[in-house]
Write a structure and sequence with these properties.
By secondary structure, this protein is mainly β. It has no helices and twelve strands. 0% of the residues lie in helices and 45% in strands.
Length: 179
């Protein structure tokens, strides 16, 4: 027995769904427009080892992007980019720490009242084998205001972050239990 799949061409798109099964659906972006590429940019660094993690809309227009840079010799610091509405790079900040210099950003948000940026993630402390939940507090220019770490014996990472109606910040954390 040979099984072959029937492929239908619907408006130039090949699909295994028959024309009667296709439901037209459009999900608009945050401005009510159909999704489209607004801009696409490449932000080079000296060795092109940037790993973007999160992109958010800035309170005063434009965007912030975080991620980490991977350097086999000197570690993995996090970075914060400030990007204009049309995608041009305004500035880049690299946030490092003492060895082992391994950090990563999982999520971030900007407090609309203060302009502060809160970035969650993980970092290594003392060795390259155990990660600790990390929360960075930055001003709107990417300058570090505070850095908090939280750990358990097996390591973990801070994940998503939200701001509650009473202006508190809540994050989840993934803690390793098998160590």
């Amino acid at each position: 027995i040979e099984c072959t799949q029937t492929i239908y061409n619907i408006d130039g798109i090949n699909t295994p769904m028959s024309p009667g099964d296709v439901v037209e659906f459009e999900l608009p972006d945050m401005y009510g427009r159909p999704w489209d590429t607004i801009w696409q940019k490449h932000y080079p660094d000296p060795v092109d080892n940037m790993w973007p993690q999160v992109l958010i809309k800035a309170a005063d227009g434009g965007f912030y992007m975080n991620g980490y840079e991977f350097f086999p010799i000197s570690g993995q610091p996090v970075f914060l980019l400030r990007i204009s509405d049309n995608g041009d790079l305004i500035w880049k900040k690299v946030i490092s720490k003492a060895a082992p210099n391994v950090m990563s950003g999982s999520d971030m948000l900007q407090d609309p009242a203060t302009g502060r940026i809160i970035m969650t993630g993980y970092q290594y402390i003392g060795s390259n084998s155990a990660s600790y939940s990390s929360v960075l507090f930055l001003d709107s220019l990417g300058n570090k205001l505070a850095h908090k770490t939280y750990n358990n014996a097996c390591g973990g990472a801070a994940g998503s972050i939200i701001q509650s109606k009473d202006s508190n910040f809540l994050t989840d954390a993934r803690m390793n239990v098998d160590c």
